């Protein structure tokens, strides 16, 4: 059936399909997305598509509707059932098949969505398929005259767990007590499978799969959602804490004191470990990541490459440069030996291996990777992002050492501090990130910039 361009564009985003179930997403819409995706993949030579889904109440029904659209176009479906997003990427990699993951990640319970990839977990974005799918949803997806495809089921959880463990040297691990907050998301499914074969005393929190998220949002990027884990780490005497988001493709780390470890510090740690294995390699980092990351990579003889924010840009750079690893400030971590895709679980295993390979507590281990103070991302609702950005640039004109526009504006100041202002692609927001040598410098810059942005 044909649909309005407005209704389609509200759901088919830059990197995925996402919307409110029953209002923007229903079985008929998702069936047509499956059919259009199947047509696109069939034209590329694919014969089957692998499908996984998270624990949201709507996910099984929607994934079945998608499968019906795929098989109606003559392609087979391999359904892996409950899965984390990186587990779906694993299945896409080993089966050499395009994939569809039903999840809305950290969004509230009323949402659901679809993350699509080509064979080998290669991303599908606007320019690599989503625009074509959107156009067909508006015009109506053509029928297929051939025989329908088949549906089979395959459990890949144990294979996934063995694979991610095989990517990290874990044989010399000392025993660790690890607190994990799964946020009622897919970490409750994958963590026991992965950690079960390791010398880990697991202290689980919110491992029950529940797409209504009864305890807190499954979004560890918000400090409010780390509070329970921080308390658990302190009370249990754990060596560290790990928090996964709803689809468990991102992982956040808390040290033995209950203090958050920045994703930039985790990026630097994993980069150092990868460079030790493969000296001189390329490491990708987005422009919001701490300057400590490219500094450390260069000091270790690696090649830092800076890119825009967003997984499609990171994955493109990973493929073009042959980078061994890439990290983002949002705790997405990308690995060449994981098909260039992101895996929070692999990043977690690197942190565990680094901690268990020496005797210091995590806070001391990470101190060398955390060189600067940072604001974190601060959002402001604005009527005109371009006008507010121009006002900030004018105010800092005399002090700016340099200004670049790779993604929004990044302003370097003479004292070594820098800030980035970039507009959201989907909301009327300006996102501010500030880094400086001291927390006092960061606070002063944040106050000055926000006074202009929010004037």
TrEMBL record:
InterPro entries associated with the record: A-D-PHexomutase_a/b/a-I, A-D-PHexomutase_a/b/a-I/II/III, A-D-PHexomutase_a/b/a-II, A-D-PHexomutase_a/b/a-III, A-D-PHexomutase_C, A-D-PHexomutase_C_sf, Alpha-D-phosphohexomutase_SF
Cofactor: Mg(2+)
Similarity section: Belongs to the phosphohexose mutase family.
Enzyme class label: isomerase
Keywords: Isomerase, Magnesium, Metal-binding, Phosphoprotein
Domain Alpha-D-phosphohexomutase alpha/beta/alpha: 12-130, 159-258, 268-372
Upper lineage: Bacteria, Bacillati, Actinomycetota, Actinomycetes, Mycobacteriales
One term of GO molecular function: phosphomannomutase activity
CDD domains according to UniProt: PMM_PGM (cd03089)
UniProt keyword Cell cycle present: no
Residues of the Alpha-D-phosphohexomutase C-terminal domain: 377-450
UniProt keyword Ligase present: no
The protein's name in its UniProt record: Phosphomannomutase
């Amino acid at each position: 059936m044909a649909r309005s361009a407005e209704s389609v564009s509200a759901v088919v985003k830059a990197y995925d399909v996402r919307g409110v179930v029953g209002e923007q997403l229903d079985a008929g819409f998702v069936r047509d997305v499956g059919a259009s995706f199947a047509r696109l993949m069939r034209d590329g030579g694919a014969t089957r598509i692998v499908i996984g889904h998270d624990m949201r109440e709507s996910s099984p029904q929607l994934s079945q509707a998608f499968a019906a659209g795929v098989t109606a176009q003559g392609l087979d479906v391999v359904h892996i059932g409950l899965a984390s997003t990186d587990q779906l990427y694993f299945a896409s990699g080993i089966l050499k098949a395009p994939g569809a993951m039903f999840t809305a990640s950290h969004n509230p319970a009323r949402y659901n969505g679809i993350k699509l990839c080509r064979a080998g977990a290669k991303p599908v974005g606007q320019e690599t398929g989503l625009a074509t799918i959107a156009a067909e949803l508006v015009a109506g997806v053509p029928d297929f005259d051939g025989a329908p495809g088949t549906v089979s089921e395959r459990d890949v959880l144990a294979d996934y767990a063995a694979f991610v463990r095989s990517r990290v040297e874990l044989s010399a691990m000392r025993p660790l007590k690890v607190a994990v907050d799964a946020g009622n998301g897919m970490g409750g499914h994958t963590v026991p499978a992965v950690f079960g074969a390791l010398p880990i005393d697991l202290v689980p929190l919110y491992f029950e799969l529940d797409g209504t998220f009864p305890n807190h949002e499954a979004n560890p990027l918000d400090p409010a959602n780390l509070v329970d884990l921080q308390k658990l780490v302190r009370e249990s005497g754990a060596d560290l804490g790990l928090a996964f988001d709803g689809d468990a493709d991102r992982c956040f780390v808390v040290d033995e004191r209950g203090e958050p470890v920045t994703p930039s510090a985790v990026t630097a740690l994993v980069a150092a470990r990868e460079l030790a294995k493969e000296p001189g390699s390329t490491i990708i980092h987005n422009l919001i990541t701490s300057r400590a990351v490219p500094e450390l990579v260069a000091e270790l003889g690696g090649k830092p490459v800076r890119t825009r924010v967003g997984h499609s840009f990171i994955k493109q750079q990973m493929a073009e440069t042959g980078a061994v690893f890439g990290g983002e400030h949002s705790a997405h971590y990308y690995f060449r030996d994981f098909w260039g895709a992101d895996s929070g679980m692999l990043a977690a295993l690197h942190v565990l291996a680094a901690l268990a390979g020496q005797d210091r507590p995590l806070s001391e281990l990470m101190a060398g990777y955390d060189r600067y103070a940072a604001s974190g991302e601060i959002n402001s609702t604005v009527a005109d992002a371009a006008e507010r950005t121009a006002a900030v640039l004018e105010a800092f004109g005399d002090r700016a050492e340099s200004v670049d526009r790779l993604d929004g504006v990044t302003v370097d100041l003479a004292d070594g501090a820098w800030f980035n202002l970039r507009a959201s692609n989907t909301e009327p927001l300006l996102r501010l990130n500030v880094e400086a040598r001291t927390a006092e410098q960061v606070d002063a810059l944040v106050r000055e910039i926000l006074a202009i942005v929010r004037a």
